[in-house]
Amino acid sequence: MTEGELLLKVENVSKKFCKDLKTSLWYGIKDLISGVSSSNKERILRPKEFWAVKDINFELKRGECLGLIGHNGAGKSTLLKILNGLIKPDSGQVTIKGRVGALIELGAGFNPILSGRENIYNNGAILGFTRKEIDDKLEDIIDFAEIREFIDMPVQNYSSGMKVRLGFAVAAQMEPDVLIIDEVLAVGDLGFTLKCFKTIDTILPNTAVVFVSHSMPMVSRICNKIILMENGEPKYVGEDIGEGIDKYYSRFTNNNSNVVFDDNSLTLDSFKIKTESVINGFPVINWGGNLKLDINFTTKIKKETFCIVIIISDKEQRPIAMLQESQFNSIENKSMRVLVDVSDLQLSKGLYNFNLVMKSGMTNEPRLRINNIGEFQVIHEKEVWQPFLLRATYDFIS
């Protein structure tokens, strides 16, 4: 076993599918009859066909973990199935050295009518292990999966969490050369997920891992290479995990107002984030700087007390902070302007967005709510996943 040994090489891999089953069957028959082998013909899309994966290239060595990210439908699962040998690419080549363990779909590879114990032996045999090798690993797999009392029950009676635990236990405890993990880990409970990542840390020096997840903190934690896919194509390939994740978020940022509720008691005319600079379309605020908002709206009713609430969400749409509420009295058909100032902003480096809520100051009933009303970026030299980077002083006394 050689550290840094090349275990997985993907060269110009592409795969196309047809949107219509009947048309797909007809194309299949025509290809069989004509014996299609021309790479030029393979590259041409026919009516109703589309590229699920197109021109993917990367290498993965022992001890490396590749993060595969992108929105739903980007082509990640198709690429994993190609890597695992479940489907053949239309063009390109995949070269894998050693044994491959895969956890790409919930319950994939399990025979539902067989017991958990029988499925362990089946999966181990598929991976190329002898019965004796599986015998040696059996107790470790059962203990890791935490399903000893259910191990002789048919897998079809397992919960989704039990299937994930057994699938990961088999895939990881067998210590394959290449380990492929789809986002099924999101199904398990937090305690088991943490145990899975601890196991990945343990086996990674001897394994090459391909990891798919929508959780960017998870990707950042274990990956040292990253591919961002969109519509089947690679949009970023490299070793700068932070840059790949930033491109992932920036591609799915929506600058349009998203009105969740509106009772027509007021109209928002503008919502501006006042900053000195803009990078990649985002207003930029230096860590420790001042956050300034300029909000203009028109009230349509009189003698009403409104309460304005501004919520800050992170790039994963998790609310992380709320600005102190403020109230005002309305005047019918009156334009109003509100200037908001937050000094010494200590949000950590990253992208954030605002949700705006207007509610009755008397009853707390909502009047207007708009999500993702504006985005901004906090700049700092250090990248951390905690939402706040708080200013502190240290006195070292010897």
Structure description:
The chain is an alpha+beta fold and 398 residues long. A hairpin with a 5-residue loop joins strand 19 and strand 20 (366-379). It has helices spanning 21-34, 39-43, 76-83, 116-126, 131-145, 160-173, 190-203, 216-222, 241-251; strands at residues 6-18, 49-61, 65-69, 91-96, 100-103, 178-181, 208-212, 225-230, 233-238, 258-262, 266-274, 277-279, 282-286, 291-299, 305-314, 319-322, 326-329, 334-342, 350-360, 366-379. Strands 10, 12, 13, 15, 16, 17, 19 and 20 form an 8-stranded mixed β-sheet that branches. Helix 4 (116-126) crosses helix 5 (131-145) and helix 5 (131-145) packs across helix 6. The chain starts with 5 loop residues before the first strand and ends in a 19-residue tail after the last strand. It folds into 2 domains: 6-36 and 46-251, P-loop containing nucleotide triphosphate hydrolases (Rossmann fold), CATH 3.40.50; 258-379, abc- transporter (atp binding component) like domain (Coagulation Factor XIII, Chain A, domain 1, Distorted Sandwich).
